[in-house]
Amino acid sequence: MSDDFNMSMRKFLKQVGVTSQQAIEEAARDKGVEGQTYEARAVVTVNGLDVEHVVTGTIKG
Fold it and tell me: Name one Pfam family in it (predicted).
C-alpha cells in the first residue's frame, strides 16, 4: 500500500476512535448511569472496496 493510503486510513480510524469515544461518554453522562455494562457494536464500511468490518465488545461503566 502507498504511504498516502496508509496515512489517510490511519487518520480516518483515529477520527472514528476519538469521535466515537466522545459520543459514548456524552451519552453516558446524559443518562447519568455508572456501574452498568453495555454491549457495543461498531461497523466500518468502505464503499468501493466491498468491506464491512464489525467489531463487538463490552463497555463497563
Answer: DUF6494
Q: What is the amino acid identity at position 20?
A: S
* Grid cell 466515537 in the structure block, residue: 20
**What phi and psi, each to the nearest 5 degrees, are found at residue 36?**
-105, 165
CA gap 35, 61 in Å, rounded: 5
DSSP letter string over 4-35?
Answer: HHHHHHHHHHHHHHHHHHHHHHHHHHHHT--S
Summarised one tens digit per residue, pLDDT across range 8-46 is 999 999 999 999 999 999 998 898 877 889 999 999 999
pTM of the prediction? 0.83
| Total domains, the chain | 1
